Predict the 3D structure of the following.
Amino acid sequence: MCGVVGFLQLRDSATPNGQSRHLRHMMRCIVHRGPDSDGTWVDGEAGIWIGHRRLAIVDLSAAGAQPMVSEAGRYVIAFNGEIYNHADLRAELERSGMAPAWRGHSDTETLLAGFDAWGIEETIRRSVGMFAFAVWDRRNRALTLGRDRIGEKPLYYGVAKTGHGPVFLFGSELKALREHPAFARTIDRNTLSLFLRYSYIGGSHTIYEGCHKVLPGCLLSISRDQPDPHEWQYWSAAAAAGGQVPPTEEMGEGEAVDALESLLSEAVGRQMVADVPVGAFLSGGIDSSTVVALMRKWTSRPVHTFSIGFRDPRHNEAEHAKRVAAHLGTRHTELYVDTADLLDVVPALARIYDEPFGDNSQIPTILVARLARQHVTVALSGDGGDELFCGYDRYRQVRNLWHLLRPIPPPARAILSRGTRSVAVPAWNALAAPLHPKMRTLGQRLGRIAAYLEGQSAEDIHRKVISFWPSPPVVDAREPP
């Protein structure tokens, strides 16, 4: 990964002193994102400061250094991520006679050539990859931020007030924005309520007021002439799924399996293109095992895999991973950790994640990433498989539950819900406990059922299923009750 930072003065006024120093401070706090090199690009008259921290993956030479200027001189980019089909884009530019005199073979240079030839949005539509970027249009004096379709790479922004007028801040991590002296560290209590409900902060929200994430599949533009950020979608998951998937009845099971394997194999193969060592996280489950098996198809050398193990057999997946690694012939590295190892990570969590994040898998993920970094620069994983292939039980449960509830008239469901809630949870538990030990939590179960009865759609019920706390709006109040 790399790091992108910068800011744009939104008022044409005298440039205050210390701006380059502020940029350096923003870059310094994300050095972990790009330990190989750094660079800046500044136009004080236009009011734009851009910084970049580089982790070199493709084209390790100085030709891949950033911020990078397009051959025509119009665009300046700071880019984080990888464009997997950039060789195809280069070939297309060359066939059409719009290719520049290439300076190197980085995907960043390919993007800039595309911007010169096709424009920013059209180039991004043609690009396949994971990315976040900031690009300055020197002709129009406009800044564009962009993020990949699924949001694999982060990008934050916000408008801060200074004595010289408002300034638009952006960066790969919140800690970079916090380094600018104009950044207000005011906690957004509405966002805090979202965290208490879901245990993470999703959408465009962040823990700070006036600070946002660029949404996945979106571009955002801003300039002195148009100082209000304008964000729009260039890609929609719903539209892509609804418009391009062939009806299942037209494809037999064997054909579907072959088509899926072909798509997955192509995706994995593209992500293995790098000028640095590539490995994989391996848990032994279906998702990561599939990724590693497909990696073996693209290389004659053993794939380097990494696993974290636990002494408690109830939580240990390392034995499964070891068997998969032996079957696939990988060069496997595992690390067994104990309670002390896990607790040692906890003090660093706030610094690593910048805002509240309640997923307990974050600790072993940090440990396996540290282990992998000792051997490889890039590691693939099976993350996202459950979301793409409906692996979580809740998807099936919500679908089945809504099929049961939908035929019941809403007034009848409301009466059933109120009736269930009319008896307190402890009372339900006390009544049911003598019947069977598993019935001791009947009250809690009935409480959840009462909430589901109030659902107005499958989406509404799903929101209730994934909520850790059903009443977070109470924290919205500015004064304690």
About this structure: Residues 253-271 form the longest helix (19 residues).
